[in-house]
From TrEMBL:
Superkingdom of origin organism: Archaea
InterPro entries in the record: Dimeric_a/b-barrel
Gene3D superfamilies: 3.30.70.100
Name of the protein described by the UniProt record: Cyclase/dehydrase
């Protein structure tokens, strides 16, 4: 399994989430299999988004889209997010 983990700060979570939800179909069309959004309890403006992808190529293509850059600006993302490409090596039940 391939994942992309993005760590970013946002000015307004509700505004960001609205834009994120608007782009669900775009992510899906590019190979996304779903996402988890986590919020730092100690730093509420910091989010960790983990998106599952069909393959690494799809994840990397998504990050390079002009549409994503425009959406991040519109959504109030502060600074450049940290992006990590991850491959699942093992899974346990607990």
């Amino acid at each position: 399994m391939t994942y992309m983990m993005i760590i970013k700060s946002v000015k307004d979570y509700d505004k960001w989430k609205s834009i994120f939800d608007e782009h669900e179909n775009m992510r899906k069309s590019m190979g996304s299999r779903g996402a988890s959004v986590l919020r730092n309890k100690n730093v509420p403006e910091q989010l960790v988004v983990i998106i599952e992808w069909e393959d690494m190529e799809s994840a990397k293509k998504f990050v390079e889209t002009e549409d994503l850059i425009l959406a991040m600006e519109k959504a109030g993302v502060m600074g450049l997010p940290a992006v990590y490409y991850l491959e699942e090596k093992d899974r346990t039940e607990h």
